[in-house]
Amino acid sequence: MEQQKAPLSPDQHRTTTIEQGRFCVARCTCGWRGPARRARSLARSDAAGHAAG
Ligand SMILES: [Zn+2]
């Protein structure tokens, strides 16, 4: 996994959560993908942390 730290504006980080079986994964339009979580709230937290930089 690689995480980029490009100075993108918040508009370029559109995060969403998708369900994969029993898990929920946060994804971003920049290509970032969070770890699989059992709870959507955790996936959202991952997305929020990513979008915040
Ligand atoms: Zn992003």
Automatic annotation (TrEMBL):
This is Mobile element transfer.
